[in-house]
Amino acid sequence: MREAYDVYGAAGRLKVSVAAWRWAVASGLVPAADAGAGRWSRAVVQAADAEGIRAALPGVVGAWWAAERLTEALGAPLPFGRPSVTATAVGHLVRAGLLAYLGGDVATPDVHPDQVATLARRRDLPALLDRHVPLGPDQAAVRLGVRRTEWDQVVRLGWIAPVGTVEIDYKRHGGWTEVPLYSGQDVALLPLSRPSVDWRALRTLAPGRRSPLAALDPVDPAEGDTVFLAEAARIAGVGRAAVANWRRRYDDFPAPAAGTDTHPRFDRSAVVAWLLAHDKIAVPAGVPSATLALRSGDTGERRFRLDDPVLELADDADGEDRLSGWTTDTDADALATLTATYTGASLRRLTAPARPPLAVPGRVRVINRYRSGSGGLRITLAWPASLRGTADRRSRGGTVDHAVPYAAPGAQCVCVRQACGGLIPVPYCPEHGRTAEPVMEWHPAGGVRCAHLTRPAPAEQPA
Questions:
Q1: How far apart are CA 133 and CA 185, in angstroms?
Q2: What phi, psi does 437 have (nearest 5°)?
Q3: Could you tell me the pLDDT band of residue 201, with boundaries at 50, 70 and 90?
Q4: Cβ atoms < 10 Å from Cβ of 243
Q5: Alpha carbon 366 to its chain's center
Q6: Whole-angstrom Cα distance, residue 82 to residue 125?
Q7: Max alpha carbon distance in the chain (Å)?
Q8: How does pLDDT run across 291-324, given as a tens digit for each residue?
Q9: Contact between residue 19 and residue 58 where contact means Cβ atoms under 8 Å apart
Q10: Angle, in degrees to the nearest 10, between helices 125-132 and 184-193
Q11: How far is CA 448 from CA 233, 397, 402, 421, in A?
Protein backbone atom coordinates (compact mmCIF):
# COMPACT_ATOMS: atom_id res chain seq x y z
CA MET A 1 0.00 0.00 0.00
CA ARG A 2 1.32 3.44 -0.95
CA GLU A 3 2.51 5.42 2.07
CA ALA A 4 3.14 8.78 0.34
CA TYR A 5 1.79 10.63 -2.69
CA ASP A 6 3.19 13.29 -4.94
CA VAL A 7 0.90 16.00 -6.35
CA TYR A 8 -0.29 13.78 -9.18
CA GLY A 9 -0.84 10.75 -6.95
CA ALA A 10 -2.75 12.80 -4.36
CA ALA A 11 -5.00 14.33 -7.04
CA GLY A 12 -5.62 10.90 -8.59
CA ARG A 13 -6.39 9.34 -5.20
CA LEU A 14 -9.11 11.94 -4.54
CA LYS A 15 -10.25 12.12 -8.18
CA VAL A 16 -9.70 15.88 -8.35
CA SER A 17 -7.66 17.86 -10.85
CA VAL A 18 -3.99 18.49 -10.21
CA ALA A 19 -4.71 22.24 -10.28
CA ALA A 20 -7.39 21.81 -7.60
CA TRP A 21 -4.96 19.94 -5.33
CA ARG A 22 -2.28 22.60 -5.84
CA TRP A 23 -4.77 25.33 -4.98
CA ALA A 24 -5.91 23.40 -1.89
CA VAL A 25 -2.30 23.31 -0.69
CA ALA A 26 -1.69 26.99 -1.52
CA SER A 27 -4.91 28.13 0.19
CA GLY A 28 -4.45 25.95 3.27
CA LEU A 29 -7.34 23.55 2.63
CA VAL A 30 -4.86 20.70 3.05
CA PRO A 31 -1.65 20.69 5.08
CA ALA A 32 1.73 21.33 3.54
CA ALA A 33 3.76 18.38 2.31
CA ASP A 34 4.65 16.23 5.33
CA ALA A 35 6.43 13.28 3.69
CA GLY A 36 9.25 15.08 1.95
CA ALA A 37 9.52 17.73 -0.76
CA GLY A 38 6.25 17.74 -2.73
CA ARG A 39 4.94 14.56 -1.04
CA TRP A 40 2.04 13.96 1.35
CA SER A 41 1.46 11.06 3.69
CA ARG A 42 -1.42 8.65 3.11
CA ALA A 43 -3.14 9.91 6.26
CA VAL A 44 -3.19 13.50 5.00
CA VAL A 45 -4.53 12.52 1.57
CA GLN A 46 -7.23 10.26 3.00
CA ALA A 47 -8.36 12.98 5.43
CA ALA A 48 -8.73 15.58 2.67
CA ASP A 49 -12.23 16.72 1.63
CA ALA A 50 -12.43 15.98 -2.09
CA GLU A 51 -15.71 17.88 -2.59
CA GLY A 52 -14.38 20.92 -0.78
CA ILE A 53 -11.23 20.86 -2.91
CA ARG A 54 -13.28 20.73 -6.12
CA ALA A 55 -15.52 23.59 -4.98
CA ALA A 56 -12.56 25.78 -4.03
CA LEU A 57 -11.30 25.93 -7.61
CA PRO A 58 -14.15 26.61 -10.04
CA GLY A 59 -11.63 27.20 -12.83
CA VAL A 60 -8.14 28.33 -13.73
CA VAL A 61 -6.91 31.07 -16.05
CA GLY A 62 -3.83 31.31 -18.20
CA ALA A 63 -0.95 33.68 -17.73
CA TRP A 64 -2.06 35.79 -20.72
CA TRP A 65 -5.49 36.41 -19.16
CA ALA A 66 -3.87 37.30 -15.83
CA ALA A 67 -1.44 39.65 -17.58
CA GLU A 68 -4.32 41.51 -19.24
CA ARG A 69 -6.17 41.95 -15.92
CA LEU A 70 -3.06 43.26 -14.16
CA THR A 71 -2.34 45.64 -17.05
CA GLU A 72 -5.89 47.00 -16.79
CA ALA A 73 -5.34 47.55 -13.06
CA LEU A 74 -2.37 49.83 -13.80
CA GLY A 75 -4.72 52.27 -15.54
CA ALA A 76 -5.76 53.27 -19.02
CA PRO A 77 -3.82 54.70 -20.65
CA LEU A 78 -0.79 53.12 -19.01
CA PRO A 79 1.37 55.62 -17.13
CA PHE A 80 4.11 56.81 -19.44
CA GLY A 81 7.23 54.73 -19.02
CA ARG A 82 5.48 51.65 -17.61
CA PRO A 83 5.25 48.63 -19.94
CA SER A 84 2.21 46.38 -19.91
CA VAL A 85 2.31 43.22 -17.81
CA THR A 86 3.33 40.17 -19.85
CA ALA A 87 2.57 36.47 -19.42
CA THR A 88 6.22 35.95 -18.47
CA ALA A 89 5.81 38.57 -15.73
CA VAL A 90 3.00 36.46 -14.29
CA GLY A 91 5.51 33.61 -14.03
CA HIS A 92 7.83 35.84 -12.01
CA LEU A 93 4.94 36.79 -9.70
CA VAL A 94 4.28 33.08 -9.14
CA ARG A 95 7.94 32.45 -8.28
CA ALA A 96 7.80 35.41 -5.87
CA GLY A 97 4.90 33.74 -4.04
CA LEU A 98 2.33 36.38 -4.98
CA LEU A 99 0.33 33.92 -7.09
CA ALA A 100 -0.05 30.15 -6.74
CA TYR A 101 1.21 27.86 -9.49
CA LEU A 102 -1.68 25.69 -10.71
CA GLY A 103 -0.12 24.08 -13.76
CA GLY A 104 1.00 24.70 -17.31
CA ASP A 105 4.33 26.09 -18.45
CA VAL A 106 6.42 27.26 -15.50
CA ALA A 107 7.39 30.44 -17.38
CA THR A 108 3.74 31.28 -18.20
CA PRO A 109 1.71 29.35 -15.60
CA ASP A 110 -1.99 28.85 -14.96
CA VAL A 111 -3.28 30.75 -11.91
CA HIS A 112 -6.44 31.33 -9.86
CA PRO A 113 -8.70 34.14 -11.20
CA ASP A 114 -9.74 35.31 -7.72
CA GLN A 115 -6.12 35.56 -6.64
CA VAL A 116 -5.35 37.61 -9.74
CA ALA A 117 -8.27 39.94 -8.92
CA THR A 118 -7.00 40.37 -5.35
CA LEU A 119 -3.51 41.22 -6.59
CA ALA A 120 -4.95 43.69 -9.13
CA ARG A 121 -6.72 45.57 -6.32
CA ARG A 122 -3.52 46.15 -4.36
CA ARG A 123 -2.45 49.78 -4.36
CA ASP A 124 1.21 48.74 -4.32
CA LEU A 125 0.89 46.70 -7.54
CA PRO A 126 3.40 48.91 -9.44
CA ALA A 127 5.93 48.51 -6.62
CA LEU A 128 5.40 44.74 -6.58
CA LEU A 129 6.01 44.56 -10.33
CA ASP A 130 9.17 46.64 -9.99
CA ARG A 131 10.43 44.44 -7.18
CA HIS A 132 9.76 41.01 -8.63
CA VAL A 133 9.56 41.27 -12.43
CA PRO A 134 12.85 41.74 -14.30
CA LEU A 135 12.86 43.67 -17.56
CA GLY A 136 14.57 43.09 -20.86
CA PRO A 137 16.50 45.97 -22.49
CA ASP A 138 13.53 47.20 -24.55
CA GLN A 139 11.17 47.01 -21.56
CA ALA A 140 13.72 48.77 -19.36
CA ALA A 141 13.98 51.63 -21.87
CA VAL A 142 10.18 51.98 -21.85
CA ARG A 143 10.06 51.87 -18.03
CA LEU A 144 12.69 54.60 -17.88
CA GLY A 145 10.96 56.60 -20.62
CA VAL A 146 14.02 56.88 -22.88
CA ARG A 147 15.14 55.59 -26.25
CA ARG A 148 16.84 52.21 -26.47
CA THR A 149 19.99 54.20 -27.38
CA GLU A 150 19.98 55.87 -23.95
CA TRP A 151 19.42 52.54 -22.23
CA ASP A 152 22.41 51.01 -24.00
CA GLN A 153 24.49 53.95 -22.77
CA VAL A 154 23.26 53.39 -19.19
CA VAL A 155 24.48 49.79 -19.41
CA ARG A 156 27.79 50.85 -21.01
CA LEU A 157 28.40 53.34 -18.21
CA GLY A 158 28.03 50.58 -15.62
CA TRP A 159 25.09 52.24 -13.86
CA ILE A 160 23.13 49.00 -13.76
CA ALA A 161 24.00 45.31 -14.06
CA PRO A 162 21.89 42.35 -15.22
CA VAL A 163 20.24 40.14 -12.60
CA GLY A 164 19.80 37.22 -15.01
CA THR A 165 19.35 36.21 -18.63
CA VAL A 166 16.73 34.55 -20.79
CA GLU A 167 17.02 32.84 -24.15
CA ILE A 168 14.64 34.10 -26.83
CA ASP A 169 14.15 32.55 -30.24
CA TYR A 170 14.44 35.38 -32.77
CA LYS A 171 13.66 33.25 -35.81
CA ARG A 172 14.21 36.12 -38.23
CA HIS A 173 17.55 37.07 -36.66
CA GLY A 174 19.50 33.86 -36.50
CA GLY A 175 17.71 31.78 -33.89
CA TRP A 176 18.19 31.70 -30.13
CA THR A 177 19.69 34.78 -28.47
CA GLU A 178 20.60 35.32 -24.82
CA VAL A 179 18.97 38.52 -23.56
CA PRO A 180 19.99 40.15 -20.25
CA LEU A 181 17.36 40.91 -17.62
CA TYR A 182 17.44 43.87 -15.23
CA SER A 183 15.76 44.46 -11.89
CA GLY A 184 12.64 46.57 -12.38
CA GLN A 185 13.29 48.26 -9.06
CA ASP A 186 16.85 49.19 -10.06
CA VAL A 187 15.54 50.61 -13.34
CA ALA A 188 12.87 52.66 -11.58
CA LEU A 189 15.45 54.02 -9.10
CA LEU A 190 17.86 55.30 -11.77
CA PRO A 191 16.42 58.86 -11.90
CA LEU A 192 16.87 59.03 -8.11
CA SER A 193 20.27 57.36 -7.88
CA ARG A 194 21.66 59.53 -10.71
CA PRO A 195 20.42 63.03 -9.79
CA SER A 196 23.07 64.76 -11.91
CA VAL A 197 21.44 63.47 -15.13
CA ASP A 198 18.78 65.60 -16.81
CA TRP A 199 16.27 62.78 -17.25
CA ARG A 200 13.61 65.11 -18.62
CA ALA A 201 15.95 66.13 -21.45
CA LEU A 202 16.79 62.48 -22.16
CA ARG A 203 13.09 61.63 -22.38
CA THR A 204 12.46 64.31 -24.99
CA LEU A 205 15.41 63.77 -27.31
CA ALA A 206 14.37 63.83 -30.96
CA PRO A 207 15.03 60.73 -33.08
CA GLY A 208 18.49 60.77 -34.60
CA ARG A 209 19.98 63.05 -31.93
CA ARG A 210 23.19 61.83 -30.29
CA SER A 211 22.71 60.78 -26.69
CA PRO A 212 24.32 63.14 -24.14
CA LEU A 213 25.28 60.01 -22.17
CA ALA A 214 27.69 59.01 -24.96
CA ALA A 215 30.12 61.73 -23.79
CA LEU A 216 30.34 60.32 -20.24
CA ASP A 217 33.00 57.90 -19.02
CA PRO A 218 31.95 54.56 -17.56
CA VAL A 219 32.41 53.73 -13.89
CA ASP A 220 36.01 52.72 -13.16
CA PRO A 221 35.92 49.27 -11.51
CA ALA A 222 39.12 50.09 -9.62
CA GLU A 223 37.60 53.21 -8.04
CA GLY A 224 34.06 51.91 -7.71
CA ASP A 225 30.78 53.81 -8.03
CA THR A 226 30.93 56.14 -5.05
CA VAL A 227 29.30 59.40 -3.94
CA PHE A 228 30.15 62.23 -1.56
CA LEU A 229 27.69 63.20 1.17
CA ALA A 230 26.47 66.08 -1.02
CA GLU A 231 25.35 63.74 -3.80
CA ALA A 232 23.82 61.35 -1.27
CA ALA A 233 21.80 64.34 -0.08
CA ARG A 234 20.65 65.04 -3.64
CA ILE A 235 19.53 61.42 -3.98
CA ALA A 236 17.47 61.78 -0.79
CA GLY A 237 16.22 65.26 -1.70
CA VAL A 238 17.55 66.83 1.50
CA GLY A 239 20.44 69.04 2.55
CA ARG A 240 23.95 67.75 3.16
CA ALA A 241 23.60 68.45 6.89
CA ALA A 242 20.69 66.01 7.12
CA VAL A 243 22.76 63.17 5.64
CA ALA A 244 25.67 64.00 7.94
CA ASN A 245 23.24 63.84 10.85
CA TRP A 246 21.94 60.42 9.72
CA ARG A 247 25.51 59.17 9.55
CA ARG A 248 26.07 60.17 13.19
CA ARG A 249 22.73 58.88 14.48
CA TYR A 250 22.48 55.52 12.70
CA ASP A 251 25.05 52.82 13.35
CA ASP A 252 24.08 50.97 10.17
CA PHE A 253 24.80 53.90 7.85
CA PRO A 254 27.21 52.66 5.14
CA ALA A 255 30.87 52.98 6.00
CA PRO A 256 33.11 55.04 3.67
CA ALA A 257 34.37 53.08 0.71
CA ALA A 258 36.95 55.61 -0.47
CA GLY A 259 38.07 59.21 -0.03
CA THR A 260 39.48 60.77 3.12
CA ASP A 261 38.29 61.39 6.66
CA THR A 262 37.40 64.95 5.66
CA HIS A 263 35.80 64.04 2.35
CA PRO A 264 34.61 60.42 2.58
CA ARG A 265 33.04 58.64 -0.37
CA PHE A 266 30.33 56.02 -0.04
CA ASP A 267 29.25 53.17 -2.28
CA ARG A 268 26.30 54.47 -4.29
CA SER A 269 24.27 51.24 -4.23
CA ALA A 270 24.80 50.89 -0.46
CA VAL A 271 23.58 54.46 0.10
CA VAL A 272 20.48 53.91 -2.04
CA ALA A 273 19.73 50.62 -0.24
CA TRP A 274 20.07 52.33 3.15
CA LEU A 275 17.81 55.21 2.13
CA LEU A 276 15.19 52.71 0.95
CA ALA A 277 15.41 50.63 4.11
CA HIS A 278 14.96 53.72 6.30
CA ASP A 279 12.08 55.18 4.21
CA LYS A 280 14.13 58.22 3.21
CA ILE A 281 13.27 57.55 -0.45
CA ALA A 282 10.68 55.39 -2.22
CA VAL A 283 10.75 53.48 -5.47
CA PRO A 284 8.98 55.69 -8.05
CA ALA A 285 5.75 53.88 -8.99
CA GLY A 286 5.21 55.98 -12.08
CA VAL A 287 5.57 59.38 -13.64
CA PRO A 288 3.32 62.18 -12.24
CA SER A 289 0.28 63.00 -14.33
CA ALA A 290 -2.01 65.95 -14.95
CA THR A 291 -5.76 65.70 -15.45
CA LEU A 292 -7.43 67.91 -18.06
CA ALA A 293 -11.14 68.65 -18.29
CA LEU A 294 -11.81 70.45 -21.60
CA ARG A 295 -15.19 71.88 -22.52
CA SER A 296 -16.33 72.46 -26.10
CA GLY A 297 -19.66 73.81 -27.22
CA ASP A 298 -20.01 70.99 -29.74
CA THR A 299 -19.00 67.94 -27.72
CA GLY A 300 -19.42 68.97 -24.08
CA GLU A 301 -16.76 68.08 -21.53
CA ARG A 302 -13.95 65.58 -22.16
CA ARG A 303 -11.29 64.40 -19.71
CA PHE A 304 -7.68 63.62 -20.61
CA ARG A 305 -4.52 62.59 -18.80
CA LEU A 306 -1.01 63.87 -19.50
CA ASP A 307 1.93 62.00 -17.95
CA ASP A 308 5.12 63.72 -16.78
CA PRO A 309 3.49 67.16 -17.20
CA VAL A 310 5.48 70.37 -17.49
CA LEU A 311 3.43 73.49 -16.73
CA GLU A 312 4.97 76.84 -17.70
CA LEU A 313 3.03 79.87 -16.47
CA ALA A 314 3.88 83.20 -18.08
CA ASP A 315 4.86 86.11 -15.83
CA ASP A 316 3.25 88.64 -18.19
CA ALA A 317 -0.50 88.72 -18.78
CA ASP A 318 0.28 89.37 -22.46
CA GLY A 319 2.19 86.09 -22.64
CA GLU A 320 1.07 82.52 -23.07
CA ASP A 321 0.79 79.64 -20.60
CA ARG A 322 1.91 76.22 -21.80
CA LEU A 323 1.38 72.64 -20.70
CA SER A 324 3.11 69.60 -22.19
CA GLY A 325 2.87 65.92 -21.33
CA TRP A 326 2.89 62.37 -22.70
CA THR A 327 -0.39 61.00 -24.00
CA THR A 328 -1.83 58.37 -26.31
CA ASP A 329 -2.40 58.81 -30.05
CA THR A 330 -6.17 58.59 -29.51
CA ASP A 331 -6.22 61.33 -26.89
CA ALA A 332 -3.83 63.50 -28.90
CA ASP A 333 -6.13 63.27 -31.94
CA ALA A 334 -9.16 64.08 -29.77
CA LEU A 335 -7.38 67.10 -28.25
CA ALA A 336 -6.42 68.35 -31.71
CA THR A 337 -10.01 67.99 -32.93
CA LEU A 338 -11.47 69.76 -29.90
CA THR A 339 -9.13 72.72 -30.12
CA ALA A 340 -9.16 73.11 -33.92
CA THR A 341 -12.77 74.27 -34.20
CA TYR A 342 -13.69 77.92 -34.62
CA THR A 343 -14.85 78.26 -31.03
CA GLY A 344 -12.05 76.09 -29.72
CA ALA A 345 -12.16 74.45 -26.31
CA SER A 346 -11.92 76.04 -22.87
CA LEU A 347 -9.98 74.49 -20.04
CA ARG A 348 -12.62 73.81 -17.41
CA ARG A 349 -10.14 72.35 -14.95
CA LEU A 350 -6.45 71.40 -14.93
CA THR A 351 -5.04 69.48 -12.00
CA ALA A 352 -1.25 69.23 -12.17
CA PRO A 353 1.28 68.20 -9.48
CA ALA A 354 2.21 70.95 -7.02
CA ARG A 355 -0.17 73.47 -8.62
CA PRO A 356 -3.62 74.74 -7.61
CA PRO A 357 -6.39 73.69 -10.02
CA LEU A 358 -6.52 76.05 -13.01
CA ALA A 359 -9.39 77.16 -15.23
CA VAL A 360 -9.16 79.02 -18.55
CA PRO A 361 -12.40 80.45 -20.01
CA GLY A 362 -10.66 81.31 -23.29
CA ARG A 363 -9.49 79.14 -26.15
CA VAL A 364 -6.93 76.39 -25.62
CA ARG A 365 -4.93 75.17 -28.61
CA VAL A 366 -2.43 72.43 -29.48
CA ILE A 367 0.87 73.94 -30.59
CA ASN A 368 3.16 70.92 -30.81
CA ARG A 369 3.20 67.13 -31.14
CA TYR A 370 6.47 65.27 -30.63
CA ARG A 371 7.23 61.53 -30.79
CA SER A 372 10.29 60.29 -28.93
CA GLY A 373 12.62 57.52 -30.05
CA SER A 374 10.99 55.13 -27.55
CA GLY A 375 7.61 55.63 -29.25
CA GLY A 376 5.97 57.95 -26.72
CA LEU A 377 3.90 60.90 -27.93
CA ARG A 378 4.26 64.28 -26.21
CA ILE A 379 1.78 67.06 -26.84
CA THR A 380 1.91 70.76 -25.90
CA LEU A 381 -1.14 72.97 -25.21
CA ALA A 382 -1.19 76.76 -24.88
CA TRP A 383 -3.64 79.47 -23.85
CA PRO A 384 -3.54 83.25 -23.19
CA ALA A 385 -2.06 83.98 -19.77
CA SER A 386 -4.48 86.89 -19.35
CA LEU A 387 -7.40 84.45 -19.05
CA ARG A 388 -5.86 82.15 -16.49
CA GLY A 389 -7.77 81.62 -13.27
CA THR A 390 -8.08 79.08 -10.50
CA ALA A 391 -10.86 76.52 -10.39
CA ASP A 392 -10.48 76.19 -6.62
CA ARG A 393 -12.12 78.92 -4.54
CA ARG A 394 -9.87 78.03 -1.61
CA SER A 395 -6.76 79.11 -3.55
CA ARG A 396 -5.70 82.69 -2.97
CA GLY A 397 -2.72 84.81 -3.84
CA GLY A 398 -0.58 85.53 -6.85
CA THR A 399 -2.46 86.58 -9.95
CA VAL A 400 -5.41 84.19 -9.60
CA ASP A 401 -7.36 85.43 -6.60
CA HIS A 402 -10.39 87.15 -8.19
CA ALA A 403 -13.70 85.62 -9.27
CA VAL A 404 -16.43 86.81 -11.59
CA PRO A 405 -20.03 85.52 -11.68
CA TYR A 406 -21.58 84.66 -15.03
CA ALA A 407 -24.18 87.37 -14.31
CA ALA A 408 -23.63 90.64 -12.44
CA PRO A 409 -23.83 90.32 -8.65
CA GLY A 410 -27.21 91.08 -7.06
CA ALA A 411 -28.02 93.48 -4.25
CA GLN A 412 -27.54 90.83 -1.57
CA CYS A 413 -23.93 90.08 -2.55
CA VAL A 414 -21.52 90.86 0.31
CA CYS A 415 -18.36 89.48 -1.31
CA VAL A 416 -15.17 91.53 -1.32
CA ARG A 417 -14.98 93.60 -4.52
CA GLN A 418 -11.80 94.25 -6.47
CA ALA A 419 -10.78 97.30 -8.46
CA CYS A 420 -10.97 95.33 -11.69
CA GLY A 421 -14.61 94.46 -11.03
CA GLY A 422 -14.03 90.94 -9.77
CA LEU A 423 -14.91 89.63 -6.32
CA ILE A 424 -13.73 87.09 -3.76
CA PRO A 425 -16.64 84.92 -2.55
CA VAL A 426 -17.05 84.66 1.22
CA PRO A 427 -18.87 81.76 2.93
CA TYR A 428 -21.63 83.97 4.37
CA CYS A 429 -22.58 85.61 1.06
CA PRO A 430 -26.26 84.77 0.26
CA GLU A 431 -25.45 84.63 -3.46
CA HIS A 432 -21.96 83.15 -3.72
CA GLY A 433 -21.09 81.60 -0.36
CA ARG A 434 -21.78 78.08 -1.56
CA THR A 435 -21.50 78.66 -5.28
CA ALA A 436 -20.13 75.74 -7.27
CA GLU A 437 -18.57 75.72 -10.72
CA PRO A 438 -19.38 76.76 -13.34
CA VAL A 439 -21.53 79.56 -11.88
CA MET A 440 -18.30 81.36 -11.01
CA GLU A 441 -15.24 81.93 -13.23
CA TRP A 442 -11.83 83.01 -11.99
CA HIS A 443 -9.47 85.43 -13.65
CA PRO A 444 -6.13 87.11 -12.92
CA ALA A 445 -5.72 90.44 -11.18
CA GLY A 446 -3.84 93.43 -12.54
CA GLY A 447 -6.79 95.20 -14.12
CA VAL A 448 -7.66 92.40 -16.58
CA ARG A 449 -11.41 92.76 -17.02
CA CYS A 450 -13.39 89.56 -17.59
CA ALA A 451 -15.88 89.52 -20.47
CA HIS A 452 -18.53 88.07 -18.15
CA LEU A 453 -18.79 91.48 -16.39
CA THR A 454 -20.45 92.89 -19.47
CA ARG A 455 -23.40 90.53 -19.13
CA PRO A 456 -26.58 92.05 -17.72
CA ALA A 457 -27.95 91.04 -14.36
CA PRO A 458 -30.75 88.46 -14.40
CA ALA A 459 -33.46 91.09 -13.80
CA GLU A 460 -32.23 93.14 -16.78
CA GLN A 461 -32.12 90.26 -19.25
CA PRO A 462 -34.73 90.50 -22.03
CA ALA A 463 -37.67 88.11 -21.88
A1: 9
A2: -60, 150
A3: confident
A4: 23
A5: 24
A6: 12
A7: 100
A8: 888 877 666 678 888 888 888 877 666 788 888 8
A9: no
A10: 100
A11: 44, 16, 10, 9
